[in-house]
Specification:
- Belongs to the PIGC family.
- InterPro entries: Plno_GlcNAc_GPI2 (IPR009450).
- The protein has 200 residues and is mainly alpha-helical.
- The chain has five helices and no strands.
- It has helices spanning 2-35, 42-59, 77-91, 97-150, 155-185.
- The chain is extended, with a radius of gyration of 23 Å.
Length: 200
């Protein structure tokens, strides 16, 4: 038991070192990254950010996040680079380097580490772990969005927003996949002799 714990501890040490190196360099380079795009207009920054996020969503390797599909090294390079460039564009409009460091650290955590964590949950934990992770993600989003909406908005609009958020979360995470799985049962594949195309 002790040897197994030591083995697991030695597996974690390189990950901790990588994280410390990243956060140290990000903190040291935050003033440079903060002023990197200061001469670019705000409209151009927002346009570039939108473009980079679209590239991220388009090029993201969704297939390797499911069981049975091995992860290929470098499969998410374009998408991750685009997402970090979008975060860098937004960071250039923040008030000081500390905010830049916080935004870039959050971006790396959400865009690089979170997909790896969810993939590990899916592969090792099965369906129960996936459901727990979905509920945890939805609860976190609700708790995060509530203070944003809470300030300066009437109670009726807050209730409407909360209902819409809960409904969309349930539909996207539960109703849609259940409907898709039920539709798979009635899916038919047409087999048969096909007439060859004849060029006239």
């Amino acid at each position: 038991m002790k040897e197994e714990n030591e083995r697991q501890f030695h597996k974690v040490i390189p990950e901790i070192k990588s994280g410390m190196v990243f956060f140290t360099f990000c903190f040291l380079l935050a003033p440079v990254l903060h002023s990197l795009l200061s001469s670019v207009s705000t409209d151009s920054i927002y346009a570039m950010c939108t473009f980079f996020l679209l590239v991220y969503w388009t090029c993201f390797d969704y297939k390797t996040h499911w069981k049975g599909h091995p992860r290929k090294p470098g499969s998410n390079t374009i998408s991750l680079s685009s997402a970090l460039l979008a975060a860098l564009c937004l960071a250039s409009r923040l008030p000081d380097p500390y905010h830049t460091f916080a935004l870039l650290s959050t971006a790396v955590t959400l865009l690089a580490l979170w997909p790896a964590l969810t993939r590990r949950f899916r592969n090792n934990g099965g369906d129960g772990a996936q459901i727990c992770l979905t509920i945890l993600s939805g609860s976190t989003i609700l708790l995060t969005a509530w203070p944003i909406v809470y300030s300066g908005v009437s109670f009726e609009y807050r209730c409407i927003f909360l209902c819409a958020l809960i409904t969309s979360t349930l539909c996207i995470n539960f109703v849609g996949p259940c409907y898709l799985l039920r539709m798979q049962k009635i899916k038919r594949t047409i087999h048969g002799p096909w007439d060859e195309a004849v060029i006239e």
